[in-house]
Amino acid sequence: MSYKILLLEDDSVLGQTLKEMLEDEGYSIDLAINGEEAAECTYRNKYDLYIFDINVPEIDGFALLKALREASDKTATLFMSAMVDIKSIAKGFELGAQDYLKKPFYPEELLIRVKAKLSAPDELFICGDFTYDEKKKLFKKDGKRLVLGEMQQRLFSELYRDRGNIVDKELLLECLEHPSSTALRVAINKLKQTTGLPIENIRGVGYVLETR
Predict the structure, then answer these.
(1) How far apart are CA 65 and CA 50, in angstroms?
(2) Phi, psi at residue 2, to the nearest 5°?
(3) Overall pTM > 0.70
(4) What is the full DSSP assignment across 16-72?
(5) 125-209 has which CATH code?
(6) What ranges do the domains of the chain cover?
(7) pLDDT digits (tens, 9 = 90+) for 25-56
(8) 199 beta partners
């Protein structure tokens, strides 16, 4: 699974440098240059980590995180800023950030912190009597190991990576050896029967793995 990160940085050179470095490490990065753009990204996508600069146009990093936390978004957040006074650092943590990186910094230092945040042991994904241990890539149902075929694993990975959001039908078709709408419907139904997962068909658009 590729971790998805939202990077908010209004310095285009620094932002692109950090984006490319993180992508080289296998992370999926959305780069926003102002707070309004970052907020829009959070409406459309689910992220594993937020990296926010504070002094950015439209909505500053503090206000953005405050709004996200008030909307029950608990995504891990790292602030990076030239603001180094204790009050600013304290405010960042009070708003719910997990880390604070003072500018200027070596890009590699950010990478070390990102790896530390995202390599922490994940809780099991539990849905009914189905469990998935992401670290061990292990599936279980009713407490017994469950073996999924290669195609089922590919479909599950796409749905799980963006769980709670609609995964485009065209993206799921790429998981099939002989793609067609009928083949995809059959494959999804088989995955549902095997796992018991609540995968819903959004007619004409795609499928969503519900997390409620």
Answers:
(1) 9
(2) -95, 120
(3) no
(4) HHHHHHHHHTT-EEEEESSHHHHHHHHHH---SEEEEESS-SSS-HHHHHHHHHHTT
(5) 1.10.10.10
(6) 4-118, 125-209
(7) 889 999 999 999 999 999 988 898 999 998 89
(8) 209
Q: What is the DSSP string of the chain?
A: ---EEEEE-S-HHHHHHHHHHHHHTT-EEEEESSHHHHHHHHHH---SEEEEESS-SSS-HHHHHHHHHHTT----EEEEES--SHHHHHHHHHTT-SEEEESS--HHHHHHHHHHHHSSPPPPEEETTEEEETTTTEEEETTEE-PPPHHHHHHHHHHHHTTTSEEEHHHHHTTSSS--HHHHHHHHHHHHHHH---EEEETTTEEEE---
**Tokens 């002989």 belong to residue:** 178
CATH of 4-118, one of 3.40.50.261, 3.30.540.10, 3.40.47.40, 3.40.50.2300: 3.40.50.2300
Q: Are 35 and 61 in contact (CB under 8 A)?
A: yes
Q: What is the per-residue pLDDT across 73-105, written as a single tens digit (0 to 9) for each?
A: 888 899 988 876 778 788 888 888 888 888 888
Q: Decide whether 4-118 matches 125-209 in CATH topology.
A: no
**What is the Cα–Cα distance from 186 to 166, expressed in whole angstroms?**
18
